[in-house]
Specification:
By secondary structure, the protein is α/β, with parallel strands linked by helices. Helices cover about 35% and strands about 20% of the residues. Strands 1, 2, 3, 4, 5, 6, 7, 9, 11, 12 and 13 form an eleven-stranded mixed beta sheet that branches. A two-stranded antiparallel sheet has the order 8-10. The N and C termini lie far apart (about 40 Å).
Length: about 300
């Protein structure tokens, strides 16, 4: 019998035929460790390019038969993994050579690390703010109100950890577009919360990992490129609505109980107003563009 792969890579696809081949090609250069790939295809019909990708020897295809959403699809792909590591990623990720091995190497420096996120470069050369603090009412309100027209405001900068050079550090949560998960930690918190169809499932995972005494660790010495928005551009208005719905769900859950009912109403009304503005004026649901250049990754340091 062959040994179990060290890493299971779960890639969630939705009409992703034009990018899945490049994902697998760059993944092959990202690690020297043994790995397997599970493609969980949420698409209503299977396109030929995704079917061809699934015929590669390292890959297998899971077709749920409906769009499960991101977190539920990732859980489906991770189920039954035997290796120590699970990678969950979007199909529009391109791995820089050695980047996945760099994440695994970082995990040895952080034995209580449950999730590890790389530096993420946008197509325009910006450094995506992929390591953030958990949302609080103060920072969240400032980010939501001012991020649209003042992306360097102090609330956004604090929330998105955009002060100083990128460095290896613990953080509140990591972008779900790509992260390495210690299987022990991922299973200890029962994976992603499937009540989030799209967005905020990564924030919630970071929160629950922290509650279970696991850390989320940003590793800017590992670098990937992210096309961004590939699977959501065709239905961007629906995704903006989904984003705000998930934000309401997340924040209201942090303030449960009768005493917080007025606060939950205020949060819901405020995010409803933000949604109306996003639908009318914003290109996407993020609300604040990335402000730092990916060239800053060259100055990133490991902890001493």
């Amino acid at each position: 019998m062959s040994a179990e792969p060290e890493i299971r890579v779960v890639v969630v696809t939705y009409r992703s035929g034009e990018v899945i081949g490049a994902f697998l090609d760059t993944l092959a250069k990202a690690t020297a460790r043994s790995y397997e790939v599970v493609i969980v295809d949420n698409s209503p019909e299977l396109d030929e390019a995704t079917a061809a990708a699934a015929r590669r020897p390292e890959a297998r295809l899971v077709r749920p038969g409906c769009n499960l959403g991101y977190g539920a699809a990732a859980n489906r792909g991770a189920a039954g993994a035997r290796g120590d590591w699970i990678v969950v990623a979007n199909a529009d990720i391109s791995f820089i050579p050695g980047s996945l091995d760099e994440l695994v190497d970082a995990a040895a420096r952080w034995p209580r690390g449950g999730a590890f996120g790389p530096g993420i470069v946008n197509p325009d050369g910006a450094l995506y703010p992929s390591a953030r603090d958990l949302p609080s009412l103060g920072r969240g309100a400032g980010h939501a109100l001012f991020g649209w027209f003042w992306p360097t405001n102090p609330w956004t900068a604090s929330y998105r950890r955009e002060r100083g050079a990128p460095k290896e550090m613990t953080t509140g949560w990591l972008s779900g577009s790509v992260q390495l998960l210690r299987r022990e930690a991922f299973e200890a918190v029962a994976g992603f919360d499937e009540s989030y169809f799209m967005f905020m499932e990564d924030v919630d995972l970071g929160r629950r990992l922290g509650l279970a005494d696991w850390s989320s660790v940003y590793v800017p010495s590992a670098v990937v490129e992210h096309l961004g928005g590939h699977s959501t551009t065709r239905t961007s208005r629906r995704m903006v609505v989904a984003h705000h719905r998930s934000m309401v769900r997340y924040l209201c859950r942090q303030y449960s109980g009768p005493a917080y009912l007025p606060l939950r109403v205020l949060v819901t009304l405020g995010l409803g107003a933000r949604l109306a503005l996003a639908l009318a004026f914003a290109k996407d649901s993020a609300g604040a563009r990335a402000t730092r250049s990916a060239e800053m990754l060259a100055t990133g340091t490991r902890p001493r």
